[in-house]
Amino acid sequence: MFLAYASRYGQALVDRRLYLPESWTKDRARCASASIPEEVEFATKPKMARDMIEQALEAGVPCAWVLGDAVYGADSSLRRMLERRHQPYVLAVRGAHFMRRSGDRWFEGTSPQALAEELAPAAWSCLAAGEGAKGPRLYDWARIRRPWTSDQGFESWLLVRRKRSKSAEQAYYLAFAPPGSSLAELAAVAGLRWAVEECFERAKDDLGLDHCEARSWHGWHRHMSLCMAALAFLSKLSADLRRSAWSKPNERSPKGPIAA
Q1: Choosing a second label site near 246 at 20 to 30 A (CA), which of 65, 144, 170, 215?
Q2: Nearest Cα residue to 95 out of 164, 168, 178
Q3: Tens of pLDDT along 176-203?
Q4: Which CATH class is domain 63-232?
């Protein structure tokens, strides 16, 4: 498992954990043969993700939004931890994820898919989820206000993304957003989830992240740490080049002061 950090200048992997099935952690002899420390116990992937994110936030890593796929969005402990810290997030959930309705129908169970089916046509807006190889990645987006706010006014939303194709396939997100966040902002944030996939693609294709044949706890961590350090170096180099390129004038740069 990996934790990625993304900014306008690039992205990199910043933490990692080796997931061990319970069949491993219960077999201490097997763990000892792989040099796994005795204090390592079984932990679910959402629990490991929660620990990595909380550790990064405690270390003071600046973070505007926390993103994750449906495995982590379904973890209420992760969502509550972020909400206690007033940390905005956009976390994917499955269409059948259990939810409560609002208002007088609080005790009635529902799901993101069912709530999305009740949306009026006017509730949808065509918005970009970031830039793709062929231009902006356009989807139809809608959001449904959830009946909870924090003591600082943070808002809870169900965010729905729909493909602009015949399939009209939908994806769903739970969002915890600062007051006044727009639908366009939430859509753009949800699109940043793919930054971690870009990290994997570069780390595997160029740096051998997936070419690990280590058979020990220490060997795995050394290989992953080396690949992550190399990826961070390349990401920093790319970021510096972007900054310098953006500051250079070109043929379209204004020749003098502009008054508006």
Answers
A1: 65
A2: 168
A3: 999 999 999 999 999 888 888 889 999 9
A4: alpha beta
- What is the rounded CA–CA span in Å between residue 112 and residue 142? 12
Return the exposure string of 8-30: e unless at least 16 CB atoms fall within 10 Å of the residue's CB, then b.
Answer: eebbbbbbbbeebeeebeeeeee
Residue of 122, 11, 110 whose CA lies nearest to 67: 11
Per-residue pLDDT, 257: 39
Query: What distance in Å separates the CA atoms of residue 175 and residue 184, rounded to the nearest whole number?
Result: 13
The residue to which tokens 């990290």 are assigned: 199
Strand partners, 162: 140, 170
User: Rounded CA gap, 163 and 104, in Å?
Assistant: 32
Domain spans in the chain, listed from the N-terminal domain onward:
63-232
Looking at residue 56, its amino acid is A
Give the helix ranges, DSSP H, for the chain: 22-25, 28-33, 45-58, 70-73, 76-84, 112-117, 183-191, 195-207, 217-247
> If you search the block for the tokens 């994997």, which residue do you land on?
200
CA angle 165-71-226, nearest 5°?
105
Of 96-100, 145-149, 168-172, 255-259, the range with the lowest mean pLDDT is 255-259
Q: Are 246 and 237 in contact (CB under 8 A)?
A: no
